[in-house]
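Repro:
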Amino acid sequence: MQPLIDEYMNYLKVIKGLNNKSLVAYKQDLEQFDASTQKPIEKIASEDIYHFLEKFSNKRTLNRKLSAINSFFKFLAHESKLEHSFTLRSSKLPQVLPKYIPSKEIEKGLELIDTKEWIGLRDYALILFLYATGCRISEALDVKKSDFEGGWLTIRSGKGDKQRLVPVAKRALVSIDEYLSKRDFFSEYIFVSYQQKKLSRISAFKIVKKYLATSPHTLRHSFATSLILGGADLRVVQELLGHASINTTQVYTHLQKEHLQETLMRFHPMSKRYA
């Protein structure tokens, strides 16, 4: 099966344009499947695939390997290397709800920061900025002073090199201005290190972890959750987060439904009467 796997890898690289990380994952999964079955490709049956997949209890891992196998056999059938193809159904994954922390917890974390020096002011401004904008950490670290105009932030390094406009809460803007006024050196980037270089992802993670015991990405989820619970439309949240598809944003719909139900139970007269 190895020559066919190599041919498929070349197809994925040249025709599909997959990156090296994806290519390595596909190759490892298929070679692992080959080692497990030890059969000529034309004699492999669906039972062999199921037998291979039984070894993996993690559904995400199982589905990734199944996806690689399905696409491999589809390629072989399309290239007339096989008379038939396999398309086995993936295992349904439980919905993983994004972690978030309420604004009160964020405020408690902010109170722990010593803002007497510019480093503390930077940490304070970074946490507020992440929560106020919902930026990905990679986007936040690329932000420059010139990206702000009239209370709006232009994010120029979003996924797929797309740009989007995000309004920034006044409190976050004030904290950034205060931080920058105490910085006695110039840098085109807002968030920088002791060495006056652009802050790294690892350093940003450590800052958020230190004061909030969580990750920068959790602040992004907290931003979205606060909007949803406040009644924001899902399409607006999609735009602010920079999601290409509404399907990505729909992970927050459970919050929307819970909030609507809670509102009904609290304020509708019939709900009160029969509670």
